[in-house]
Design a protein that fits this description.
The structure holds 3 protein chains of 3 kinds. By secondary structure, chain A is mainly α. Helix content of chain A is about 70%, strand content about 0%. Chain A has 14 helices and 2 strands, in the order H-H-H-H-H-H-H-E-E-H-H-H-H-H-H-H. In chain A, a hairpin with a 2-residue loop joins strand 1 and strand 2. Chain B is mainly α. In chain B, a hairpin with a 2-residue loop joins strand 1 and strand 2. Chain C is of the alpha/beta class. Helices cover about 35% and strands about 25% of the residues of chain C. Chain C is built from 18 helices and 22 strands. In chain C, strands 6-7-8-3-9-10 form a 6-stranded mixed beta sheet, sandwiched between helices. Chain C has a 6-stranded mixed beta sheet with strand order 16-19-20-13-21-22, with helices on both faces. The longest helix of chain C has 16 residues. The chains are: A mainly alpha, B mainly alpha, C alpha/beta. The interface between A and B is large, with 58 and 51 residues.
């Protein structure tokens, strides 16, 4: 069994349902793991694998949501901002577990509103998703700054520390969370009627409309789902990092999009798998990890990341769907 | 392409054509005027010539990089490496400014050539690997970022004393470079509308498959737009180096996503084929004016971001002319 | 040039062409020749090899064996643009146009005239385009954006494009798929004009009437082989069908049963107005009947159907489905009440091209193949297998893609999808467009089967033979209004055309303004 836990055998049958060209990224992943194992003996050590899993968890959560949004023909650049806002919300209250339900409620509320705003702008106002979600991100960032006056203070309740750093039955809790989410959302996307509608709307929204699907509702639902997942990721990260600053989750928006596209989800929508997105995220995490293990200077780390991104995506020669 | 599910009225030909080409640009222009009027009402210091000339100058950096981005977007692509190119250009300009081979002019020439080369590499990768431009340019941006960090981890050197006139020089109190950039926009717009190649850029964005079948040199078009975008980013980096006195490797980080905002607000759709550089120009000024106005309105710095974000949302929601877009 | 001289020289000849692909021999020693100044029809079922032959002719494919002779010399096309430069021009069903550019810009794409300064010479370009369009008898403003044009006009731009460069051989692939009535006549006139100029024209179509109306010779292909070449004047429709399909095909249209006296009214439409395209339309469809809707392109037929189904919002009026009245309809509501809508444009409004056959077949019946919100692959696959079997959808597998199926088979997938869910009235918009003869007969058969089961059918068609052959009643539309109704022996081409082209004032009397 490969090192990264979320690749469950149960998914393999769904892999075969989809087109063979998707195998490219898995081969790339396998080669990357092998190469990393050869380059660094500590790569496959248990503590390092656990380390990678823990790093993978928040990115994986965000990627799950991003897969939905991209599949339906959109894009979401607000995830990093949502994560940071959720993390700030975690510090808003008195820092005890008593306020945890309030934190969850506030986060859910914020996520739903953000997702609705994104979805409505894209569907009812025909705003480009790129711009709509970027603007939403800026507004959230502004709200964050306004509230924290630039420096968040306050404590994160212990329950989030548990979520972020605790263990259960030998597995890090945040990894368990993402595994459960992957399973649940994988079923939702690939096995449920809602998921089928997502593919229909993403593939050809006009044809979908004419068979009775409401494309706007499906799109808005995906944006809300994505925001909720990002919010959860933000809460988990707040517990993990311990200190919350305004920049929790920075870079996640582009990383999640890159992971999703590397995983074979077409930017034009309608084609792709959740597993592919997660593998893309795993590839990113492995790259982040191996460059550290090899002691590469930060400059080289960034370069390697860039090269891998391009290389992994070149595994599919995806001709733009017409 | 079928006009099946639209209820087109038989509006007169010229008005329809006029509207669809320039609709967004006109809306943005109107918003610009609204903002100017609002500004005048909020503060008398706002509408002074002096202040407006300042805005003119402040808009230069954003406008220049957005110019190049517009062309890439018009072909249906995107250039996410511009931020890194700006960082590279700024850092190398100041870092190499006192080289023994001719001083800063040589450095500038070298930087411009390097930018062009980077753009060509972007174009080649996009064409050969058939990977989406978003990924290619993002990856390239990362490679460049890492690369420039090898050269310098912090601010590199400094530009010579006369150099800041590139950023601050004025003639009859009118900022020189800013005006040149505006002129550049008009030249670009002219070229786009009045030359074959300019039209090809639109056509490739409209339908690249049809373009290839029609004998349009799509390869040359793609290579050119990414080359041009990189050059614009490089020039922006040089300008910023002059503005700040020296360049540092993270200078351009925010410019990547920021360069797309004026493009989209100005009416160019991310799927390509529609829009234009003039819209981008107006939108870039709109955003700069907004920034300026926010300062005058005395809005505390914590709230400024909120206002900016909301303003962008309002600006794009107002424009209901556009058809549904994806990405 | 004397017409007689020209028509006997082979301008282009494909001699013993063989082309193979992995697993299939697309062309088997096919010989096909076209003379300058002739209109040569190419017919055959889907999969017979017509499109492969065209691609060899146009330089897209290189033949594995055989040779191409052009103007008396053996040639080898290096590429499609190479053949194009030598004067071979193909106009496909899928138009190669730029919606955001003007007519003139499209016509001269990649060959735009320039001023001495190297800038685009819009004046010359527009002028030349105008002249070209006028020569072709087309009323279009060269400065109009192509995206705003009707599909028929867009097709004209394509033809003008071909004529802008020195075209010697013009291939028209299903040109009348998207036009009808007067526009077809105009197209024929223009094609005849091209013939008079000495152009060799290859005309690919499934519509045999047109071939007999327009073409000089006809070549029949079947299973990758050329079966025969005849002079059109020496052959009959039945002969051609027999050669194409390999068996006798009399009675392509199923017999029309007598309508039950007490058949319930499944669909009632009153005074429906849709946008500015449909005005005060009223109609009804009873169980067991096929109501045809005829009319020129642009008369509002599709908009009427869309308004009934909820695909387009209705400005006013009422729709009653199975006795249930509604003034506001969406596709979801219409489907729930028992309507189905097989749209005109298979690819962009009907099929979900990124999904497979099974997913397309079950697209309207997600509830039927799922439980508690989860899709069940067993029933989904079974539905696909059932559809493939009962509609004889060739080349389809449940998990296979729909984009590789032929037009007729794609149409069958769509019909099977709607039949699964449609309980009252099925609306079909151009059901046999781009469908070969064999598949057409099957589709007609299916339609009658549906009516025997008690459904009603509303069929929009531009093929008058089809309208007359299949409908129990025909409604003819003209400029957004239902101009008249014909039944029984009154359903003649002549009468339908009359109603389609001249307005009849309504009984509400007097002058009637037809606002557009």
């Amino acid at each position: 069994m490969s090192a990264v836990v979320s690749k469950r055998p149960a998914w393999s049958q769904f892999i075969s349902l989809n087109v063979a060209r998707r195998y490219g990224i898995f081969i790339f992943f396998a080669l990357l793991v092998i190469a990393s194992g050869i380059l660094s003996p500590t790569f496959l050590r248990q503590d390092n694998v656990v380390n990678m899993l823990v790093q993978f968890a928040p990115l994986g959560m965000v990627v799950i949501g991003q897969v939905f949004v991209i599949l339906v023909g959109g894009l979401d650049l607000s995830v990093a901002s949502v994560m940071a806002t959720a993390a700030v919300i975690a510090t808003c209250f008195d820092g005890t577990n008593v306020s945890a339900p309030k934190i969850f409620a506030a986060t859910i509320g914020m996520c739903v509103l953000t997702g609705l705003l994104n979805g409505l702008l894209v569907t009812k106002r025909q705003v480009s998703p790129f711009l709509a979600t970027f603007a939403t991100a800026v507004v959230l960032q502004g709200l964050r700054f306004a509230y924290t006056q630039g420096a968040p203070s306050g404590n994160v309740p212990p329950i989030f520390h548990e979520m972020g750093t605790g263990f259960l039955a030998g597995m890090p809790i945040n990894v368990l969370i993402v595994a459960v989410l992957a399973l649940v959302f994988g079923v939702l996307l690939h096995l449920s009627t809602f998921g089928r509608r997502v593919f229909m709307v993403g593939g050809n929204s006009e044809s979908a409309r004419l068979v009775g699907v409401n494309p706007d509702v499906i799109r808005i639902a995906c944006y809300v789902l994505n925001a909720l997942l990002a919010g959860l990721a933000g809460l988990v990260l707040s517990g993990f990092v311990g200190i919350v600053d305004n920049w929790v989750g920075r870079g996640f928006e582009l990383d999640s999009i890159v992971a999703t596209v590397m995983g074979g989800v077409a930017l034009s929508g309608g084609k792709g798998t959740l597993l592919g997105g997660l593998v893309g995220a795993a590839i990113l995490i492995i790259v982040f990890n191996i460059v550290l293990l090899l002691g590469m200077p930060v400059q080289a780390q960034i370069i390697v990341k860039g090269v891998i991104i391009i290389g992994a995506s070149a595994c599919y020669v995806i001709r733009r769907a017409r | 392409m079928s006009t099946l599910f639209s209820l087109n009225n038989g509006r007169s030909l010229s008005m329809r054509r006029h509207l669809s080409h320039n609709a967004a640009a006109w809306v943005v222009l109107a918003l610009l005027f609204v903002l100017l009027i609002a500004g005048t009402l909020i503060s008398d210091r706002f509408s002074t010539v002096g202040n407006l000339l300042n805005v003119h100058q402040q808009a230069t950096g954003l406008a220049l990089v957005s110019l190049g981005q517009t062309l890439a977007v018009l072909t249906g692509g995107i250039d996410l490496s511009v931020g890194s190119i700006i960082s590279v250009a700024a850092t190398l300009t100041s870092g190499l400014a006192d080289n023994p081979y001719g001083g800063w002019p040589t450095a500038v020439i070298a930087v411009v050539l390097l930018s062009g080369l980077i753009g060509l590499i972007n174009g080649c990768l996009i064409l050969w690997l058939k990977v989406h431009p978003l990924i290619v340019t993002l990856g390239m941006g990362a490679v460049l970022q890492g690369g420039i960090l090898y050269y310098s981890l912090g601010p590199a050197g400094s530009v010579p004393d006369g150099f800041d006139s590139v950023a601050y020089g004025r003639f009859l109190n009118i900022p020189v470079t800013a005006t040149i950039v505006v002129l550049l926009f008009f030249v670009a717009s002219f070229m786009m509308r009045r030359t074959r190649f300019g039209h090809y850029i639109y056509m490739v964005g409209d339908d690249d498959h049809a373009a290839a079948l029609s004998g349009i040199p799509t390869t040359r078009v793609i290579l050119f737009v990414y080359f041009f975008s990189a050059i614009c980013a490089g020039l922006t980096g040089i300008y910023l180096a002059a503005q700040f006195g020296s360049g540092q490797p993270y200078l351009g980080v925010n410019y990547t996503l920021a360069s797309i905002t004026p493009v989209v607000v100005g009416g160019t759709v991310l799927t390509g084929g529609r829009g234009g550089v003039i819209g981008t120009l107006i939108a870039a000024y709109l955003l700069s004016l907004l920034n300026n106005l926010i300062n005058f309105a005395g809005i505390p710095s914590q709230y400024q971001l909120i206002v900016q974000g909301l303003a962008v949302i309002i600006a794009v929601s107002v424009n209901t002319q556009r058809k549904r877009v994806t990405v | 040039m004397n017409a007689g001289d020209v028509a006997t020289t082979d301008l282009i000849e494909l001699h013993q062409i063989t082309k193979e692909f992995p697993g299939v021999k697309s062309l088997d020693q096919v010989s096909f020749a076209v003379r300058a100044g002739e209109i040569h029809a190419l017919v055959g079922e889907n999969g017979a090899g017509k499109s492969t032959l065209t691609k060899v002719l146009a330089g897209v494919y290189a033949p594995d064996a055989g040779e191409i002779r052009f103007d008396g010399r053996v040639v080898q096309w290096k590429s499609a643009p190479d053949a194009k430069r030598r004067g071979i021009h193909v106009i496909h069903q899928e138009l190669v146009l730029f919606p955001q550019s003007t007519v003139a810009e499209n016509i001269f794409a990649s060959a735009e005239p320039r001023t001495r300064l190297g800038l685009l010479d819009h004046a010359t370009m527009n002028g030349d385009a105008q002249r070209l369009l006028t020569e072709l008898g087309v009323q279009l403003d060269p400065r109009e954006r192509v995206g705003n044009l009707s599909v028929a006009d867009q097709q004209m731009v394509e033809i003008a494009k071909a004529m802008a460069s020195e075209t010697r051989v013009l291939v028209l692939d299903e040109p009348t798929a998207v036009i009808a009535g007067r526009e077809v006549e105009l197209l024929f006139d223009r094609v005849r004009a091209l013939r008079a100029r000495g152009v060799a024209i290859v005309y690919i179509s499934h519509r045999l009437d047109e071939i007999f109306a327009l073409c000089d010779r006809v070549t029949v292909m079947k299973d990758g082989r050329k079966v025969a070449t005849h002079n059109v004047s020496d052959t009959t429709r039945d002969t051609l069908v027999r050669l194409m399909v390999g068996r006798e095909m009399k009675d392509i249209y199923p017999p029309k049963p007598v309508l039950a006296v007490n058949a319930s009214t499944l669909l009632e439409v009153s005074d429906l107005c849709v946008g500015n395209r449909v005005f005060d339309a009223s109609l009804s469809v009873r169980a067991g009947e096929i109501v045809g809707i005829a009319g020129m392109v642009g008369s509002g037929r599709t908009e009427l159907a869309s308004g009934i189904f909820g695909a387009l919002p209705a400005r006013s009026g009422m729709v009653k489905i199975g006795g249930i009245k509604r003034t506001r309809i969406t596709p979801a509501i219409a489907i729930r009440l028992g309507l189905g809508f097989v749209t005109e444009d298979r690819k962009s409004q009907g099929l979900l091209m990124l999904l497979n056959v099974a997913q397309n077949v079950t697209a309207t019946t997600l509830k039927g193949v799922s439980r508690l919100g989860l899709m069940r692959r067993g029933p989904e696959r079974a539905a696909a297998v059932e559809a493939i079997r009962s509609y004889a959808i060739a080349g389809a597998r449940p998990t296979g893609s729909v984009s590789t199926l032929s037009g007729g088979n794609q149409q069958k997938v769509l019909i099977s999808r709607w039949v699964r869910v449609c309980k009252r009235v099925l609306i079909l918009d151009e059901p046999t467009r781009g469908v070969d003869v064999g598949a057409k007969a099957e589709i007609y058969r299916v339609m009658r089967q549906l009516t025997e089961r008690g459904l009603g059918i509303l069929m929009i068609s531009s093929e008058l033979q089809e309208v007359i052959g299949m409908s129990d009643r025909v409604l003819v539309m003209h400029e957004g209004r239902i101009n008249g109704e014909l039944t029984g022996s009154d359903m003649t081409e002549h009468d339908i055309m009359r109603l389609a082209t001249t307005s009849v004032s309504h009984t509400t009397g007097g002058e009637h303004e037809y606002a557009l």
